[in-house]
Design a protein that fits this description.
With 351 residues, the chain is an alpha/beta fold. The protein has a domain of 168 residues. It is built from twelve helices and nine strands. The chain has a five-stranded mixed sheet, sandwiched between helices. A two-stranded parallel sheet has the order 1-7. β4 and β5 form a beta hairpin. α2 runs parallel beside α8 and α8 runs antiparallel to α9. The chain is globular and about 80 Å long. It starts with a helix and ends in a 7-residue tail after the last strand.
Amino acid sequence: MPWFTCIVSNVVFAVLLAIVAWFVQRCLQLPAVARLLWVAVLVKLVTPPLVNLPVVELPGSVACAFGLCNCPQHASAQGMVGEMLLGALLAAWLVGTAATAWTAWRRWTRFERLIAQARPAPLRWQSLARRLSLELSIRRPPAILMVPGRLPPMVVPGRGRARLLLPTALLGKLNASRRASLLLHELVHIKRGDHLVRVLELMVSIIFWWLPLVSLIGPQLRACEETCCDASVVARLPQARRQYARLLLDVIDFASPSRRQVSPQATAMSAASNLEHRLRAILDTTQRRRHSWSVGAVTLGMALAILPCGFGYDFAKPKPPAISLDTCDPAAPASPVDHRDNKPFVGCCPS
């Protein structure tokens, strides 16, 4: 039972964090803060609670109906049924986790066969990537590789450093301005650690394959990441707004719509289902950067306060039996009386 209550507690608090993240992303329009909150949702699902918050005790009849009571007459039956049910749930969970992990592994092995066909990018791409990496203070620049196929540019985690995969057929269509915008966009992903978030997202999706919330986090998280990268590119290359907008359209037109070829660990350059909003934000020269330090600090403070919390599930503790006149021993000595309130001390038979 402790592992079950821990999972239920984590899911409840993760849903609360997800609601806050959605509000910050959609209503407050703060993608950077929302991204941190979505990451906090993933972390909350896989971290045990450190602080237990008490839960209001259920009435005895309700606790008995749900099998959460500690009544002596129900203890044996509830214990047997509860163990069988939890055992069946755990077995189904493990089978689903194994199947999800196997599917993800097969997709990764197919993707590795594609990477095996990659070759280093031309020297002008390598030198440009090194220069931009220095400007972004990236200690270990990624390996720039060219791959066949109609895939979008993407960042994939590597053993020692990240790998930046660029489609060979797309590189010849880009001018100098679009090359710089493309590399800067992908390097900002690496600077922010988005390729590492993919690994966390994959791990959580394998463990919580049955939770619909996990499948909703990915698109929202990628939308926040793409918006943040767009803002960084425009801030560093303000004169290349139109070239960068055309680059997004070229990538969407070039890349294959099938997502089976893309590994779940990859951070791919995509429209993230909000292309019109992204293009308007890129081309808007009057847009001012909003100061959101106060809102971000308060929101992140709430997230940090929620992360270690969990629910304590002591719904119906066994109560001591009430003293009845029928069960009292007449030969027992009378209880002393407190003359201040004329009430006998609890636990003794009245005289």
